[in-house]
């Protein structure tokens, strides 16, 4: 069946496009085995390779930051550094910051130095005898008031100095933003001392969103003066978005095509780039959703008209909810069903879904960026007006 220049196929399958599955499902670099094959390289990647070459070739020690909005590839860049160090028999400590407790965060850093547990599942006492630093560390971390920034930094430098190359990589450092000012200063002071005493062949790097980075810079300028480089990630150009689409589709092609963008047209990808405002993660979300919906209706090709049709405003509450990314759906369900669409604070939502407040806060702001929620001046969250109308219509029908 055809509609103008648009072919419609009666059965749902990605096979009509000559691909085995939707290649845009995985948004983050975690979980993708051969991530280099789909990574779109930018200027920052070349500079990071130069830094790694300097560290490995000349035993240099370098500290830098990677700053960018959510979804711009900060984690991928840190993982590249980790891989480079480990491929040269080095030790890389990578920690995804998930706490504002400096005692837990510091333990997480040192925990990465422990060898894997043996088959006999040795108790901590036995590990402590083999790795004496654990006892010393626990004494240092017995109380926040007793947090000895300099001593902890020197102990970390001592342990990492046992390897030919090493790295300390902290991801999502914005999650420390809600810690007390004193605790943040103590932790950054520890990092400052560590950078001042880095072993040879060492990399210290952390990734952070711009808002938190600016706050940290004002709070502790002495630490940021120690950094050798600051990398500000930029959004994708439309040409880079074309490359992203081509690389992802190439992974799942089961039938050759003359057009590496197929089933998308250039105009469709350009529109998705504009709608995603150049943010790689938002672009991937849009590509995943558009391809999934287009496959249901067998639109071929997927041009800008198809994209506009698929992404137009939902016609019902059910359609709105089905468009929410599955990892965030419980948050929107809570806002709709437990708080009547909001406004509601992130703390109330976190309690309702029984998830960490910091995680919920980040995901709610991501939903605002994606257009599924709106914020208010008091920092609360609510559904858009068209969703509010759906709720009012349902209430009228039920006689409430």
How does this structure look, described?
With 400 residues, the protein is α/β, with parallel strands linked by helices. It folds into 3 domains: 2-15 and 236-311, Helicase, Ruva Protein, domain 3, CATH 1.10.8; 43-232, Rossmann fold, CATH 3.40.50.300; 323-397, Arc Repressor Mutant, subunit A. The chain has 18 helices and 9 strands. It has helices at residues 43-58, 74-86, 102-111, 124-130, 133-140, 149-160, 181-196, 210-219, 221-224, 238-252, 266-275, 280-297, 304-311, 317-323, 329-337, 346-353, 357-369, 385-397, and strands spanning 2-3, 6-7, 62-67, 91-96, 166-171, 202-208, 229-232, 374-375, 381-382. The strands form 3 sheets. The protein has a 5-stranded parallel β-sheet, with helices on both faces. A two-stranded antiparallel sheet has the order 1-2. It has a two-stranded antiparallel ribbon with strand order 8-9. It is globular and about 65 Å long.
Primary descriptors:
five-stranded parallel beta sheet, Helicase, Ruva Protein, domain 3, 49% helix, 9 strands, 18 helices, Arc Repressor Mutant, subunit A, Rossmann fold, 3 domains, disordered N terminus, alpha/beta, two-stranded antiparallel sheet
Structural class: alpha/beta
Overall body shape: globular
The percentage of residues in β strands lies in 5-15%
CATH superfamily of the largest domain: P-loop containing nucleotide triphosphate hydrolases
Report the sheet with the most strands, covering strand number, pairing sense and barrel closure: 5 strands, parallel
- SSE succession: EEHEHEHHHHEHEHHEHHHHHHHHEEH
CATH architecture of the largest domain: 3-Layer(aba) Sandwich
Question: What is the gyration radius calculated from CA atoms?
Answer: 24 Å
Major β-sheet strand ordering: 4-5-6-3-7
Total number of helices:
18
Mean pLDDT, all residues: 85
Structurally, the number of domains stands at 3
Low-confidence stretches at least 5 residues in length (pLDDT < 50)? 1-12, 118-125
> Helical proportion?
40-55%
Can you tell me the CATH topology of the largest domain?
Rossmann fold
CATH class of the largest domain: Alpha Beta
Question: Count the strands?
Answer: 9
**Span from first to last CA?**
46 Å
